From TrEMBL:
Belongs to the TRAFAC class translation factor GTPase superfamily. Classic translation factor GTPase family. LepA subfamily. The lineage of its organism: Bacteria, Pseudomonadati, Pseudomonadota, Alphaproteobacteria, Acetobacterales. The keyword Protein biosynthesis applies. Keywords: Cell inner membrane, Cell membrane, GTP-binding, Hydrolase, Membrane, Nucleotide-binding, Protein biosynthesis. It comes from Acidiphilium multivorum (strain DSM 11245 / JCM 8867 / NBRC 100883 / AIU 301). GO terms for molecular function: GTP binding; GTPase activity; guanosine tetraphosphate binding; ribosome binding; translation elongation factor activity. It is an enzyme of class 3 (hydrolase). Its main location: membrane. GTP binds at residues 16-21, 133-136. Required for accurate and efficient protein synthesis under certain stress conditions. May act as a fidelity factor of the translation reaction, by catalyzing a one-codon backward translocation of tRNAs on improperly translocated ribosomes. Back-translocation proceeds from a post-translocation (POST) complex to a pre-translocation (PRE) complex, thus giving elongation factor G a second chance to translocate the tRNAs correctly. Binds to ribosomes in a GTP-dependent manner. It catalyses: GTP + H2O = GDP + phosphate + H(+). This is Elongation factor 4.
Length: 597
C-alpha cells in the first residue's frame, strides 16, 4: 500500500471511557469482521482483561475504509495498554503511529490517565483528534468537556467529534476524521530496513509473533533480520497483517504495521522498542527511544504445599515465555521454604500474574509483601540492589540507602481534595503543583514508591469515594533514613514479614502489624509474644493469650458426622497455615499483616 493511503492511529482514553467499545464499532463499521465473528470487545482478548475491563497487551487491527473522496484507505488501529504499569509499552505503541483519537467520556471529563497518555502522544508528535463519547447519556456535557480539553490539555476541541460508541452514532465521522486530519506515515523504501519491535507474544503453533512497524525498507519472507540491541539474527518465516486474525502477506513496506514470525522460542529475546534491520544490509543507527524493561516491584511467591514447587517453576517459565517484563529467580525463606523472588513493572502487573497463577495454573500461593528495589551503598563503597528486605545486611556495613521516588498526578473533585492531600502527606509526599480545572483539582506530588506499592490505590479510592484518578512515572533515587523492621513470633524472626520503612513511620507500622497479627494468628495452647524490632531493639510487642479449646466440644458427642465435618474443616485450615517453631500462621496473615490503615 502506498503511504498516502495509510493512517496509523491509537486510541487514548481513561479506563471505562469507551476505548474498546469504539474500537469494536470501527471494526464493525469497516466490515473487518462479520457479525458472527464479532465477539464482544475483540481487542481485549485475554480473560482477565475482559473481567477487569483493562487492556494489557497491545493488539492491532487493520481496517479497510472507503472514504468520501472515493479512495480506499488502510487504517491501522493500534490498541495501547491502559494502565500506568505499562507506560513504556504505551510509549512504544504511540511511537508506531502518526496520530491518536483522544476519547473522553462526555459525562465524566478529563482524568489523570487521559492526561498522562495525551502528553505522551504529544511527545510522539501525534496529530490528536478529540472524540467525545457517551453523548447518548443524559449526564453528557459536551460543551463543558470541550472547554476542559482546551483548558487542561491545550488542544483545540472546537471540531471534536461527538459520538456514542454504544449506539453507533457518528462513527462514520470518526473514520473521516482519521483520513482527513491525520498525516500519512513517511518512510524511505530504498533505505536500509528499520522496523520497530512494538510487542511480541507466544503462540504455541508459530512460536513468538512479533508486532512491527516498518519505518524504512521492506520486510519479506526468508529475509535474515537482526535485532539491533542484542545482535541476534533470525530468518523470517511469515510476514503478515492483522485482520485482526493473522493474515500472511508477501511483504511489509514503509509505514505499514504487521507481524513477523521467525521460529523464536521466547519473548525474552524480543525487546520492546528494539530496531529490526536487515542482517546483510544493516542500518547504521537504531530508531531512538529503546529502553530495556526493568521491574520496579518485587515480591516472594511460595507454594502453600511444598510439593507444588516444581509446578510453580514450570508455570513461571510459561508466563515468562509470554511476558518479557516479568522476572523471577529461585529463593529460599526460613519461614516459607522454597519459592521464587518475582519482579514486576508495577502493582497491577503483580496482581495479574498472581491471579493467573492461581486461576490458570491452579496454584495455591503465599505472596510476601511487595517491595521496591533499594540501592544500598556499603561502607566499602560497593552498591547492591536490594530486592528482598530479608537480605538487608547488618547496619554496620551500610553507609546509606537510596529509595525510588515517583512523580504522581492525581485528579480529584474539590470536595475530596483535603483527604487526598492528607493521604499524600502521610505517605511522605512532597507537593509539586496544585491547580484547579473547574471544580476538579489536579495535584502533582513526589512520593517514595515504597509508600505507594502496598495499598495507595485502595486508600486513594476510598478517601475520594472512587472519584480520584491516579497516574505516575518513575522519577529518581533519593537517599532516605530507611530501616529494616523484623517481626518475631515467639522470639523467632519470620523472614517473610520483614519490611523496610522510613524511620519516621517505623514505630507506628511496627505496632500496627503486631496488633494485626494478634488478631490473625489463632490462639494456641501457650502464650505467644509477637514483636517488631529494628536490629536488636524491640519497638512493639503484643501478647496472644493461651487458649485450649476442643473444636468438637460443642457437639455433645451426639452427631458424629457433624463432628467429622468440623475436624475436616480444621484440617483444611491447617493446609493454609505455616508452622513457625511451635506457632502456625495462616496464609492470609502474610498479606493482611502488612496492609496499612
Ligand atoms: P478499558 O478497557 O478498561 O480501558 O475501558 P474502555 O475505555 O475500553 O471502556 P469500554 O469500551 O469497556 O467501555 C466502558 C463502559 O462504558 C462499558 O460498560 C460500555 O458499555 C460503556 N460505554 C462505552 N461507550 C458508551 C457510549 O457511547 N454510551 C454509553 N452510554 N455507554 C458507553
Amino acid at each position: 500500500t502506498p503511504t498516502e493511503l495509510i493512517r496509523n492511529f491509537s486510541i487514548i482514553a481513561h479506563i471505562d471511557h469507551g476505548k474498546s467499545t469504539l474500537a469494536d464499532r470501527l471494526i464493525q463499521t469497516t466490515g473487518a469482521l462479520s457479525a458472527r465473528e464479532m465477539t464482544e470487545q475483540v481487542l481485549d482478548n485475554m480473560d482477565i482483561e475482559k473481567e477487569r475491563g483493562i487492556t494489557i497487551k497491545a493488539q492491532t487491527v487493520r481496517l479497510n475504509y472507503k472514504a468520501k473522496d472515493g479512495k480506499t484507505y488502510v487504517l491501522n488501529l493500534m490498541d495501547t495498554p491502559g494502565h500506568v504499569d505499562f507506560a513504556y509499552e504505551v510509549s512504544r505503541s504511540l511511537a508506531a503511529c502518526e496520530g491518536s483519537l483522544l476519547v473522553v467520556d462526555a459525562s465524566q471529563g478529563v482524568e489523570a490517565q487521559t492526561l498522562a497518555n495525551v502528553y505522551q502522544a504529544i511527545d510522539a508528535n501525534h496529530e490528536i483528534v478529540p472524540v467525545l463519547n457517551k453523548i447518548d447519556l443524559p449526564a453528557a456535557e459536551p460543551e463543558r468537556v470541550k472547554q476542559q480539553i482546551e483548558d487542561v490539555i491545550g488542544l483545540d476541541a472546537s471540531d471534536a467529534v461527538e459520538i456514542s460508541a454504544k449506539t453507533g452514532l457518528n462513527i462514520e465521522a470518526v473514520l473521516e476524521a482519521l483520513v482527513t486530519r491525520l498525516p500519512p506515515p513517511k518512510g524511505d523504501e530504498t533505505a536500509p530496513l528499520k522496523a520497530m519491535l512494538v510487542d511480541s507474544w507466544y503462540d504455541s503453533y508459530l512460536g513468538v509473533i512479533i508486532l512491527v512497524r516498518v519505518r524504512d525498507g521492506r520486510l519479506r519472507k526468508g529475509q535474515r533480520v537482526r535485532m539491533m540491541s542484542t545482535g541476534a539474527v533470525h530468518t523470517i518465516d511469515q510476514v503478515g497483517t492483522f485482520s485482526p486474525k493473522l493474515t500472511p502477506q508477501a511483504d511489509l513496506g514503509p509505514g505499514e504495521i504487521g507481524y513477523i514470525t521467525a521460529a523464536i522460542k521466547t519473548v525474552a529475546d524480543c525487546n520492546v522498542g528494539d530496531t529490526i534491520t536487515d542482517d546483510r544490509a544493516p542500518a547504521t543507527e537504531p530508531l531512538p527511544g529503546f529502553k530495556p524493561s526493568i521491574p520496579v516491584v518485587w515480591c516472594g511467591l511460595y507454594p502453600v504445599d511444598a510439593d507444588d514447587f516444581e509446578k510453580l517453576r514450570d508455570s513461571l517459565a510459561k508466563l515468562r515465555l509470554n511476558d518479557a517484563s516479568f522476572h523471577y529467580e529461585a529463593e529460599t525463606s526460613a519461614a516459607l521454604g522454597f519459592g521464587f523472588r518475582c519482579g514486576f513493572l508495577g502493582l497491577l502487573h503483580l496482581e495479574i500474574i498472581q491471579e493467573r497463577l492461581s486461576r490458570e495454573f491452579d496454584l495455591d500461593l503465599i505472596a510476601t509483601a511487595p517491595s521496591v528495589v533499594y540501592r544500598l551503598y556499603k561502607t566499602s563503597g560497593e552498591m547492591m540492589e536490594l530486592h528482598n528486605p530479608a537480605d538487608m545486611p547488618d547496619g554496620s556495613v551500610i553507609d546509606h540507602i537510596e529509595e525510588p521516588w515517583i512523580r504522581a498526578t492525581i485528579m480529584v473533585p474539590d470536595d475530596y481534595l483535603g483527604a487526598v492531600l492528607t493521604l499524600c502527606n502521610e505517605r511522605r509526599g512532597q507537593q509539586v503543583d496544585l491547580t484547579y480545572v473547574g471544580n476538579r483539582a489536579m495535584a502533582v506530588y513526589r512520593l517514595p514508591l515504597n509508600e505507594v506499592v502496598f495499598d495507595f490505590y485502595d486508600r486513594l479510592k476510598s478517601v475520594s469515594r472512587g472519584y480520584a484518578s491516579f497516574d505516575y512515572q518513575m522519577d529518581d533515587y533519593v537517599e532516605g533514613d530507611l530501616v529494616k523492621i523484623s517481626i518475631l513470633v515467639n522470639q523467632e524472626p519470620v523472614d517473610a514479614l520483614a519490611f523496610i520503612a522510613h524511620r519516621s513511620v517505623a514505630d507506628t507500622r511496627g505496632r500496627a502489624i503486631c496488633a494485626k497479627l494478634k488478631d490473625l494468628i489463632p490462639r494456641q495452647l501457650f502464650k505467644i509474644a509477637i514483636q517488631a524490632a529494628i536490629g536488636g531493639r524491640v519497638i512493639a510487642r503484643e501478647t496472644l493469650g493461651a487458649l485450649s479449646k476442643d473444636v468438637t466440644a460443642k457437639c455433645y458427642g451426639g452427631d458424629i458426622s457433624r463432628k467429622r465435618k468440623l475436624l475436616e474443616k480444621q484440617k483444611e485450615g491447617k493446609k493454609r497455615m505455616r508452622q513457625f517453631g511451635k506457632v502456625e500462621i495462616p496464609q492470609t496473615a502474610f498479606l493482611a499483616a502488612l496492609k496499612m490503615d
